[in-house]
Amino acid sequence: MTQRLAEIACGAHSQILGENYIGDQLAKAVDLLDPNLPISQIGRLAIDIGRASRERQGFIASFNYDQIVRDIIADRFQNGELPDRLYISGRVCWVAS
Question: Is pTM, for the whole model, over 0.90?
Answer without folding.
Answer: no
